[in-house]
UniProtKB/TrEMBL annotation:
Residues 1-22 form the signal peptide. It comes from Polypedilum vanderplanki (Sleeping chironomid midge). Residues 221-252 form a coiled coil. Keywords: Coiled coil, Leucine-rich repeat, Repeat, Signal. The keyword Electron transport does not apply. InterPro entries: Leu-rich_rpt, LRR_dom_sf, LRR_TM_domain-containing. This is Uncharacterized protein. One of its GO terms (cellular component) is plasma membrane.
Length: 269
């Protein structure tokens, strides 16, 4: 009986081990910074990004030369490109990720279930992918997000509730997408006052970048906005002056016409 149970357990373990595929992640470890921040992060630059193309793979080993006194626990950023899936599979290898940079790839979908494994996430760069929807609960497990770049995707719908709880958010890029139903969430104007920079149409994602007043571009935006306002006022004043001058010229023309008519009729005195 014991032999039968043992054989069954062994068979089960062998079956599971056969079903679970394992692979090695190759990293180039170095310190690096990212857009909108001068902070340095200890990063894994992925040399074999094809490993992320299989959602069921298990990373059983991480290869790469660490800096002195550094381990996988010190890695706070990961960067990869040309991948098909969000790198959720690194969750057990890098438990302290604050930055995920997966741009220029073919990721079509991202969910809160992907992001929940990275509760310390602060910077998320996913520009130039194929993402189509941003759902209301996408960042439910990532309250510390400060920078999000979702530009150059295929986004047609953004639920503004996705950002409403992100009190630390200071930069949000959604430019170069197809969405036409995004409005600035009310919470943004409460404490963060996110402003639109370089927009073409309010409420459109075609060319919009959102940022808080901490960003130096805000001051430039306000200065430009004020300058445009002053120029518009000057234009209106000029239009008014031109209209008044036209009225004067019109009246003068009538007077001259009457004088010429009187002169021709011999009634001019």
């Amino acid at each position: 009986m014991f032999s039968i149970k043992f054989s069954f357990k062994l068979l089960l373990l062998l079956t599971i081990s056969t079903l679970i595929k394992s692979d090695t992640l190759n990293c180039g470890f170095r310190y690096d910074n990212f857009a909108y921040t001068d902070e340095n992060f200890y990063k894994c630059f992925v040399h074999n990004p094809e490993i992320f193309n299989d959602k069921d793979v298990l990373i059983d080993k991480v290869e790469g030369r660490h800096d002195v006194d550094k381990t996988n626990d010190n890695v706070t950023a990961i960067e990869a490109s040309r991948v098909n899936n969000f790198p959720t599979i690194v969750r057990k290898n890098f438990k302290n990720l604050e930055v995920i940079h997966v741009s220029y790839s073919n990721i079509k979908e991202i969910s809160s279930q992907d992001l929940k494994h990275f509760p310390k996430l602060r910077l998320l760069f996913m520009q130039s992918n194929q993402i189509e929807y941003i759902y209301h609960d996408l960042f439910s497990y990532n309250p510390d997000l400060e920078i999000i770049n979702l530009s150059y995707n295929k986004i047609s719908h953004i639920d503004k509730r996705a950002f409403s709880h992100l009190e630390k958010l200071r930069v949000l890029h959604i430019d170069k997408n197809d969405c036409d139903d995004f409005d600035v969430p009310p919470s943004f104007s409460r404490e963060m006052t996110l402003k639109i920079i370089g927009f073409i149409e309010r409420g459109s994602c075609q060319s919009s970048a959102f940022s808080t007043s901490e960003n130096p571009l805000i001051a430039k935006f306000h200065a430009l906005e004020q300058k445009v306002k002053e120029q518009n006022e000057e234009i209106e004043d000029l239009k008014k002056q031109m209209k008044e001058r036209e009225e004067v010229i019109k009246r003068q023309g009538v007077i001259i016409k009457d004088l010429l008519q009187a002169f021709q009729n011999g009634t001019f005195n």
